[in-house]
UniProtKB/TrEMBL annotation:
Domain AB hydrolase-1: 15-234
Database matches in SUPFAM superfamilies: alpha/beta-Hydrolases
Organism domain of life: Bacteria
Identification of the protein by name: AB hydrolase-1 domain-containing protein
Organism listed in the record: Aquella oligotrophica
InterPro entries assigned to the protein according to its UniProt record, in alphabetical order: AB_hydrolase_1, AB_hydrolase_fold, AB_hydrolase_sf
Length: 252
């Protein structure tokens, strides 16, 4: 599995950036460049793992978590902060639950959580639509309806993101569909209840997560929102960097 790993010998903290569905660590380019000054960085690229036919289609998400876990153990990381966007937020929760002793904090960026029957149906309908017509238009339409803020977002940036997603998805459509569905089915509520480290949910406008439900599940979770759509790292990179930096500063 490809990765970006930047060791900072002056810091004992490693930030682990976890990208979303059909994306790559490039999503976090601005964050990686900003935080590498003060922290070590690990950003695995698990998009290509989807095309590894030696991995069973029904365990793609599990295999991603297993391989990242192995890498964390290999590096012998002692203090970790997981930062996951969208589907990467689900992966962040799973990893935090596995590495409770070394997880310093987790930051979830606009992930759809906690899962509900209604949300699962939305994603099932979306996945079904990808087999019935122009896939790029289906993905573009889904993003426009749920993840794009017409008044606040940079349309050109969002179009580049859509192109990357479609390009990756079109190589292994069924397997990417399975991966997304496995993420949607993950019981994020159960994971949130067992995690005791500091947590921040950073949503877009409007947020993909159920903020009221998140606060009921985790009373001490920190909730922030930025004025843009789902792809916060691309639309408001400096605002995101400063928000994350302040959160880390307050818990160190």
């Amino acid at each position: 599995m490809k990765e970006i790993y930047l060791n900072n010998s002056d810091s004992e903290i490693t930030l682990i950036f976890l990208h979303g569905w059909c994306l790559s660590p490039e999503s976090f380019r601005e964050q990686i460049n900003y935080f590498r000054r003060n922290y070590s960085i690990l950003a695995p690229d698990y998009s290509e793992l989807v095309g590894d036919m030696s991995v069973s289609q029904d365990r793609l998400l599990l295999e991603i978590v297993e391989r990242i876990s192995k890498r964390i153990s290999q590096l012998n990381l002692s203090k970790v902060i997981f930062i996951g966007h969208s589907m990467g937020g689900i992966i962040a929760l799973q990893l935090a639950a596995r590495f409770i002793k070394v997880t310093f904090a987790s930051i979830i960026i606009d992930t759809t959580m906690p899962s509900s029957i209604k949300q699962q149906k939305v994603f099932r309908d979306f996945l079904a639509s990808l087999s019935t017509g122009n896939q790029e238009e289906q993905i573009r339409g889904f993003i426009s309806r749920r993840m794009y803020n017409l008044q606040l977002d940079d349309r050109d940036r969002v179009n580049l993101i859509i192109k990357e997603m479609v390009d990756k998805w079109s190589k292994f459509p069924e397997r990417f569909n399975q991966l997304l569905y496995q993420a949607v089915l993950f019981d994020s509520e159960a994971a949130l209840r067992i995690l005791k480290m500091p947590l921040m949910y950073l949503g877009g406008t409007p947020p993909c997560g159920d903020i009221e439900k998140l606060q009921q599940i985790k009373r001490d979770i920190i909730i922030k929102s930025l004025p843009c759509g789902h792809f916060i790292m691309n639309n408001l990179p400096q605002d995101l960097n400063l928000t994350v930096e302040k959160f880390i500063f307050n818990i160190i």
